[in-house]
Amino acid sequence: MDIWRQLVEQRVPTATAALQRYCQQPSIAAQNVGIQETVQLVTEMVEQAGGRAQVLDDFGGNPVVYAEFAAGLNGNPDRTLLFYNHYDVQPPEPLDEWTYPPFGAEIHDGKVYARGASDNKGDLTVRLQALSILQENGGLPCNVKFLIEGEEEIGSPSLHACLAKHADLFRADACIWEFGSKDPQGRPQMVAGIKGMCYLQLWCHGADVDLHSSNGAVIDNAAWRLVQALASMKSVDNRILVDGFYDDVAPLTPELIQLAEAHPFDAEQVRQQLGLRRPLICGDENPNLHLWYAPTMTICGMESGYTGEGSKTVLPRRAQAKVDCRLVPNQDPEDILAKVQRHLEKHGFTDVQVSLVNGERAYRSDMRHPFVQMVVDTAREAYGADPVLAPTSAGTGPMYPFGEFLGQDLPIVSTGCGWWNSRAHAPDESIRLEDFEQAMLHMVLLLRRFGES
Amino acid sequence: MDIWRQLVEQRVPTATAALQRYCQQPSIAAQNVGIQETVQLVTEMVEQAGGRAQVLDDFGGNPVVYAEFAAGLNGNPDRTLLFYNHYDVQPPEPLDEWTYPPFGAEIHDGKVYARGASDNKGDLTVRLQALSILQENGGLPCNVKFLIEGEEEIGSPSLHACLAKHADLFRADACIWEFGSKDPQGRPQMVAGIKGMCYLQLWCHGADVDLHSSNGAVIDNAAWRLVQALASMKSVDNRILVDGFYDDVAPLTPELIQLAEAHPFDAEQVRQQLGLRRPLICGDENPNLHLWYAPTMTICGMESGYTGEGSKTVLPRRAQAKVDCRLVPNQDPEDILAKVQRHLEKHGFTDVQVSLVNGERAYRSDMRHPFVQMVVDTAREAYGADPVLAPTSAGTGPMYPFGEFLGQDLPIVSTGCGWWNSRAHAPDESIRLEDFEQAMLHMVLLLRRFGES
Q1: Domain extent listing, chain A
Q2: What is the pLDDT of residues B139-179, one digit of tens each?
Q3: SS3 state of residue B408
Q4: Which of A409, A447, B293, B320 is the one with CA 20 to 30 A from A254?
Q5: CA atoms within a 13 Å half-sphere pointing along the CA-CB vector of A161
Q6: Helix (H) or strand (E) holding B227
Q7: Looking at the partner chain, which of B220, B238, B424 has a beta carbon nearest the beta carbon of A212?
Q8: Going by DSSP bridges, is the β-strand pair A181-182/A418-419 parallel, antiparallel, or unpaired?
Q9: pTM, to two decimals
Q10: What residues pair up with A191 in beta bridges, in sequence order?
Q11: Interface of B with A in 276-335 (CB under 8 A)
């Protein structure tokens, strides 16, 4: 292993430069910024790593880059590993809260700061650079494929269509998912499943125009109506009150509970690190029980009327909120939407409209599959620390259609180069170069082991 | 009267040009835009009407323009009428909802469109032009004073100090307040009192940074907390739930109820004109009972997290709301603030901070004072329609300190050149030139009658 560790170390300057160039290219799906330029850049990155890239754009939505790399002469042509990544990033707003420019990819204190550094440009760079190292040192130990999409941050609305049309291209024996990060104790965290998503847009309309707020004595207020509607959907102690919301949630088995409780979670440390004003909402229970197994309902944004400096005495004509529900296996986003609609109607909020912005079902791999253990074992070697493998991420991604089109028994494990304070989706997103290097080594070791298996 | 009607008619082109020039000068107190330029312009307008202007700026806050005009040789030097106006306007946002530029003062279909046209630049122009007409035709029938302030739209925070310091300047026998408008039936609406105001800023802070929304499983959401806090303050059927909020509200007397019910209010017409999605919140009761006598609590604005296009899965670190309460006589804004603070604490919302942006107590004139009837009578002559005089406006203004410093028995009546769809505080604010002309005639007739009384 030491020779590979040395080769990876030598690669770091080249790999870092490639990462910076990639992060300096904005690629914001929600705002339709930089998509074509990024597709071109990703294609070049694949070709520089010795792969063949193919831009798939015949299914609607942003293009998907398919990449393939053949096993070398000494490699195993019967084994194929699929990587899933995305080239799009979250919007960088609020811009004034960034210490460094979000598309500057500046390096400070051993960290690369950029929107997308952690989610998910660091990981694609790690993987392509690992392939380059292997290509230059004896060839690839197995076949490798990539699915690199451009709509993950808006809920992957076209990925289903892409996989339905091109399933044959992507067939593989196992899959490495996009992300992962180290916890505060330095342990790489990995997941073998993912939560689903039901992202809702709510609007309330009152009058045709904004009115003088003195009219509040007789005219309903769109902001109040929306506040009351939202408040009716979740209790102060965080129980979701929408009828039937929990119907499809399978009861927790002793095995799942044990798995969650076996994993460490220092709630007090998290509170201090994030500056939380209140205790975690799980009470005395292990937070993993909630992060892994509980569906959520979060207000991601809301807006109405005047919110600038000073006062404006206006009765706003409309109000909006964006709400995301993280789902667990068996919950269906369309069904959740219908239940929210029924809830609003039942409680008299017929002036509040709700629509589905994007939806995704949850997925969980079989934790007993040998590939799962292989990812853990090679991580232990590369990182020199015990990995923490969870059955599911608290976050979301389009894992479900991979199972649907490539086989429900496809083992999928997610691992990556982030750290516990990478601030994905928030200002000052970053990765640490030490993690970047270890993640590269992990991929080298995993590809070699996978070729031998 | 016909000669005065004719003189007013001849004055319209000059008066309209003066109005346009005044409206083209932005003067946004909340954003500190154009204040000094506007003070200069108002001073010139006073001098052009033959008055003496004095800029008062020794009490903090934006300057107040004091203006005085002496009775002519044939006038009554023992009678003094005070006018109250303000030169500041509401912010013009949202800009993209204006059909014509908010500071363009363009004329379309007999209307002048501008932020401030109705509230309150039209009325100052009307009054100064009426004085010019009288000056040029025999001199003023009485002494006239003006208090023209620059912070009305942010709650007149410095007016109390100005009146405390300069009460002697402003002494008068009666006062005409800033505004008034015609109802859909063409009747000029006037008020002899005003509601108070308690404008609150609420903030909820969760974490130090925005977080990935998957953390919603264990970490509290500032937006949810604020929504729950707000929802705890007002019921779905619009009852304010803050303990003691209604304590100081005097019970309605049969006389007050009769006054309200005697006034027409076509609820269905209002609904249709404003495009309301829901019925008025007063049920089958006369809306005047609520507009005149009921305190309110209105969300003027709220904001949290991401509210742009598409989706962003973020757990916002903070949320804010702006809430205005219109108060009735005896309610004290500081006391209401304290009650809201106690309410939040009692209900566990210690992570929600509330502060008073501005406060004002309510005022009501004695409806039996002869001046009140004089304003009504001259309006009937000028407009050729029966005026509608209410004991109080549903809106707010700093009338209370006028009573406090100039005498609690000072009769104050508000009348002006707006119309029922003037859209004060909203996009496409306008006045109609026909109302502008009639309002000028009303002021000419009132000043003449007042000098004779």
Answers
A1: 2-195+362-452, 196-257+264-269+286-359
A2: 999 999 999 999 999 888 899 999 999 999 999 999 999 99
A3: coil
A4: A409
A5: 13
A6: helix B222-231
A7: B424
A8: parallel
A9: 0.79
A10: A390, A414
A11: 276-278, 280-282, 287, 290-291, 294, 296-316, 319-322, 324, 326
Distance in angstroms (rounded) separating the CA atoms of residues A213 and B199: 11
Q: Minimal Cα distance from A207: which residue of B? A: B276
Contact A300 B315 (CB under 8 A): yes
Q: In this predicted complex, what is the ipTM?
A: 0.78
Residue among A228, A298, A393 whose CB faces B231 most closely:
A228
Chain B contact present for A249, CB below 8 A: no
- Chain B residue numbers with beta carbons less than 8 Å from the beta carbon of A219 are 274, 276, 280-281
Task: Spell out the residues 6+ positions from residue B258 whose beta carbon is closer than 8 angstroms to its own.
Answer: none
Beta-carbon separation of B357 and A324 below 8 A: no
Q: How remote is the C-alpha of B221 from its chain's centroid?
A: 36
- Cα gap A280→A272, rounded to integer Å: 11
Q: Which of A295, A11, A285, A427 is nearest to B211 (CA)?
A: A427
Q: Rounded to whole angstroms, how far apart are CA atoms A397 and B34?
A: 51
Preferred mutation among B27, B195, B230, B313 to probe A, highest tally of A CBs within 10 A: B313
CA distance B294 to A292: 49
The tokens describing A368, both together, are 């007993």
CATH dotted code for A2-195+362-452? 3.40.630.10
* Gap between the Cα atoms of B383 and B278, Å rounded: 34
Two structure tokens written together for A428 = 């000052």
Pick the residue of B280, B288, B312 with the most A CBs within 10 A to test the interface with A by mutation. B312
| Of A135, A126, A141, A139, the residue nearest A49 (C-alpha) | A135
**pLDDT for res A270:** 87
Give the HSE-up count for residue A91: Cα atoms under 13 Å, Cβ half-sphere.
Answer: 18
d(CA B306, CA A6): 44
> Would you mind telling me the total number of residues written for chain B in this entry?
453
Phi, psi torsion values for A265, nearest 5 degrees: -155, 110
Per-10-residue mean pLDDT for chain A, 453 residues long?
93 98 97 97 98 97 97 96 98 95 98 98 98 97 98 90 96 97 93 94 95 92 97 96 96 88 85 91 90 95 94 94 95 98 97 94 90 97 94 86 93 96 94 98 98 91
Burial A120-156 (b: 16+ CB within 10 A, else e): bbbbbbbbbbbbbbbeeeebbbbbbbbbbbbbbbbbb
Output the six-digit token pair for A427. Answer: 């200002």
Q: A330: which 2 tokens? A: 């068996």
Sign of the alpha-carbon dihedral angle for B181, B186, B192, B198? negative
Q: What are phi and psi of B337, to 5 degrees?
A: -55, -50
**Type of residue at B341:** Q
User: Which pLDDT score is estimated for A1?
Assistant: 63
Q: What is the number of alpha carbons within 13 Å of residue A397 lying toward its C-beta?
A: 29
CB contact under 8 A, B277 and A351: yes
What six digits make up the tokens of B248? 């100081």
Whether domain B196-249+295-359 has CATH 1.10.540.10: the reply is no
Amino acid at B115: R
Architecture of domain A196-257+264-269+286-359: 2-Layer Sandwich (3.30)
Query: In whole angstroms, how far apart are CA A284 and each of A77, A110, A279, B221?
Result: 51, 36, 10, 19
- The Cα B189–Cα B386 span in angstroms is 9
Residues of B in contact with A181 (CB under 8 A): none
Cα angle, residue A65 at apex, residues A92 and A101 outer, rounded to 5°: 20
